[in-house]
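Fill in residues.
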């Protein structure tokens, strides 16, 4: 009977530990930004490329802080990349990086996706 009680306490402790970790993660807020270096040929500059990613991110998760929504941001940015490749082909070159930043800690930066042109 004592072993069963110890086992039960261990299981309950594990459940509460798991929940508290999830709660701590869900309390974090983030913002997303597109950065990169893009050049264009044939009269196309690279500025519009970053602007399109920024617009997609804002449409997907808003302009301020949000809970972690990497998949939503990646899906929106994948659509931009596919559109650019279809419309501009090889007239632009460079790289766009989608970063996630943690509120209150700009040093906590994570690259969630890169797009090569």
């Amino acid at each position: 009977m004592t072993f069963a009680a110890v086992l039960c306490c261990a299981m309950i402790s594990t459940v509460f530990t798991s929940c508290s970790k999830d709660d701590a993660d869900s309390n974090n807020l983030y913002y997303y930004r597109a950065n990169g270096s893009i050049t264009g040929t044939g009269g196309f500059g690279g500025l519009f490329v970053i602007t399109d990613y920024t617009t997609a991110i804002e449409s997907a998760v808003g302009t301020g802080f949000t809970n972690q929504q990497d998949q939503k941001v990646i899906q929106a940015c994948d659509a931009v990349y596919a559109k650019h490749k279809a419309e501009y082909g090889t007239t632009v070159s460079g790289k766009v990086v989608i970063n996630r930043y943690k509120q209150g800690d700009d040093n906590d930066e994570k690259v969630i996706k890169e797009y090569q042109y």
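The helical segments are 2-27, 47-61, 70-88.
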